[in-house]
Amino acid sequence: MSRLVDTxxxxxxxxFDEDRDGALERALAAGVSHxxxxxxxxxxxxxxxxxxxxxxxxxxxxxxxxHPHDASSYDDDTEVRIRALLxxxxxxxxxxxxxxxxxxxxxxxxxxxxxxxxLALASETGLPVVLHCRQAEADLREVIxxxxxxxxxxxxxxxxxxxxxxxxxLDHGLLIxxxxxxxxxxxxxxxxxxRRLPLEGLMVETDSPYLAxxxxxGKRNEPAYVKDVxxxxxxxxxxxxxxxxxxxxxxxxxxxxL
Length: 258
Hints:
This protein is of the alpha/beta class. The chain has helices spanning 20-29, 44-55, 76-86, 108-125, 137-147, 163-171, 188-194, 226-237, 241-256, and strands spanning 4-9, 32-37, 60-64, 91-100, 129-134, 154-156, 174-178, 202-204. The longest helix has 18 residues, at 108-125.
């Protein structure tokens, strides 16, 4: 059975406070079978809220972690709370974690330390990791190489790197997740990379409420629009939409145990 899965969205974001239930209904109407509500988009409380949301909706799963923007808040108490969340059946991955050298909201060394500690949690629990990377590809590779012990499973979400980056991730057992950025007029470089990637290593996501695809650019993104992301990917790979939905959905199902 084909599954259209939004593998990464921030449903606990305040942008959804007025119509979260409506957004979920529109997603189901668009054919979205499962949603991964990502924690790690703010303080640890965001991960706890995501777990609560997943607990009350059978088609939602969640993750737990600390985003690189908030890496300076990562301490022993935070790790205890993440660890407790990872024991819940509805929490299916660590993260999102990673490195963001574009904004540098947390010092880079603290970002690397928080990433390393969360990679260790993924290794300990056997759960996949959701990775964020912006203008930090070399350092992300270095931390993964040092910390993952060849046992890392997971996804580089909202991929915007080059072809060599993509090959490295795929060769190291990671999936690549793509967003509505593929539809942006100035994203031809990314589209040229995506055309060369194997469908077997790909997933789709919205990263909502951010990065709404065309024709919704400038509006709040939501999980229903993952169908537009899948359609864009199908066009770039010159494949039928059904094939893209089936394979990306199967990849998500396997990775997150949906």
